[in-house]
Amino acid sequence: MKIVAKEIEMISWTDTKGVITPLRLRIVREDESLQVIKVDKVITRTQEKFAGNLMIVFNCQSLVGNVEKRYELKYEISTCKWMLFKI
Questions:
Q1: Would you tell me which of 37, 56, 58, 61 could form a disulfide with 73, CB atoms 3.0–4.6 Å apart?
Q2: Which residues constitute the domain of residue 73?
Q3: Alpha-carbon torsion 80, 28, 40, 85, what sign?
Q4: H or E element: which one contains 41?
Q5: Cβ contacts of 54-58, under 8 Å, gap ≥ 24
Q6: 3-class state of residue 22 by DSSP
Q7: 58, 45 in Cβ contact below 8 A?
Q8: What is the pLDDT of residues 74-86, one digit of tens each?
Q9: Taking the model in full, what pTM does it have?
Q10: Could you give the strand order of the β-sheet that contains 3-14, starting from the edge strand earlier in sequence?
């Protein structure tokens, strides 16, 4: 997987216990167009410290352009920002 570390827009769902599940993300492509990707499967969910900030790391899988892709999303808890970290 290649590190891209791009900020993204995210639609997520949080249950009553506070567990976050990403549903759909929107990313700005290199040609300035927007691409929406539905998160088909969350494979793993872990926590880590990245640059001193606590993050929730999601390893996910989706169908992107008729190709099954795995990628890594990060959610920064202190700022509530989402990032597409690897694809």
A1: 58
A2: 3-86
A3: negative
A4: strand 41-50
A5: 54/78, 56/20, 57/85, 58/22
A6: strand
A7: yes
A8: 999 999 999 999 9
A9: 0.91
A10: 34-38, 20-28, 3-14, 81-86, 67-76, 53-64, 41-50
Spell out the residues 6+ positions from residue 75 whose beta carbon is closer than 8 angstroms to its own. Answer: 10, 12, 20, 22, 55, 56, 58, 81, 82, 83
Beta-carbon contacts of 28 under 8 Å, excluding residues fewer than 6 positions away, are 6, 34, 35
Tell me the per-residue pLDDT of 18-59, one tens digit each, with 9 for 90 and over. Answer: 999 999 999 998 899 999 999 999 999 999 998 889 999 999
Rounded Cα–Cα distance for residues 79 and 72 (Å): 18
Number of domains observed in the structure of the chain = 1
> Could you tell me the two tokens for 16?
């009553």
